[in-house]
Design goal:
The chain is α+β, with helices and mostly antiparallel strands. It has one domain (2-131): Alpha-Beta Plaits (2-Layer Sandwich). It is 36% helix and 28% strand. It has 4 helices and 5 strands. The protein has helices at residues 17-34, 55-66, 102-107, 118-131; strands at residues 2-11, 37-42, 47-54, 71-81, 93-96. Strands 4-1-3-2-5 form a 5-stranded mixed sheet, with helices on both faces. A hairpin with a 4-residue loop joins strand 2 (37-42) and strand 3 (47-54). The longest helix has 18 residues, at 17-34. The relative contact order is 0.24. The protein binds flavin mononucleotide. Flavin mononucleotide (FMN) binds at residues 9, 23, 26-27, 30-31, 40, 47, 49, 61, 64-65, 68, 70-71, 92.
């Protein structure tokens, strides 16, 4: 059974390129092996991540991620059963969310992931992937 999980969190320290690169490297290796796909969105003081895959694999990964000291205030926004993957192309794509991004400002002036609906957050990630320049790690 396929599921899509969405959470938001805040980094415990500055998000340096080293931190991001390490997370991406680990994610690509692990997610490929476990057939997990998704997107990681990085803001100035937050991460939003979508994980898609078989339910038990997603649960195991989410538990690993929750135990990671690189972030805090990890809040599950949703976990839903899905029939197909929305972010199936990427083992983990990285996109940047800037509050000053004209697209985010115009389309979602009040966007606050901690209070946003999961549906809104996912559509923002989808738009960012289409309009931005994701750092892509292909699933295949
Ligand atoms: C915001 C964030 C997102 C992460 N996403 C993933 C991921 O998609 N896949 C993954 O394997 N690890 C991810 N990690 C890393 C895991 O939390 C954890 O550090 C890693 O799986 C541990 O690997 P290791 O035991 O081999 O060091 C993420 C970490 C953070 C902070």
């Amino acid at each position: 059974m396929l599921v899509r999980l969405l959470y938001v969190s805040q980094p415990t320290g500055p998000i340096t390129t080293t931190v991001t690169t390490l997370i991406l490297e680990k994610s690509v290796a692990y997610n490929k092996k476990e057939n997990i796909t998704g997107v990681l969105c990085q803001g100035s003081d937050l991460w939003i991540q979508v994980l898609e895959g078989e339910r038990s694999q997603v649960n195991v990964l989410y538990a690993r991620i929750m135990a990671d000291r690189n972030h805090k205030n990890i809040e599950l926004l949703s976990m839903e059963e899905i029939t197909h993957r929305q972010f199936g192309q990427w083992s983990m794509a990285l996109v940047y969310l800037s509050k000053d991004d004209p697209m985010v400002k115009m389309a979602h002036p009040e966007f606050d992931p901690y209070s946003a609906s999961a549906k809104d957050a996912i559509s923002i990630l989808d738009e960012l992937l289409k309009t931005g320049s994701p750092i892509v790690s292909n699933a295949s």
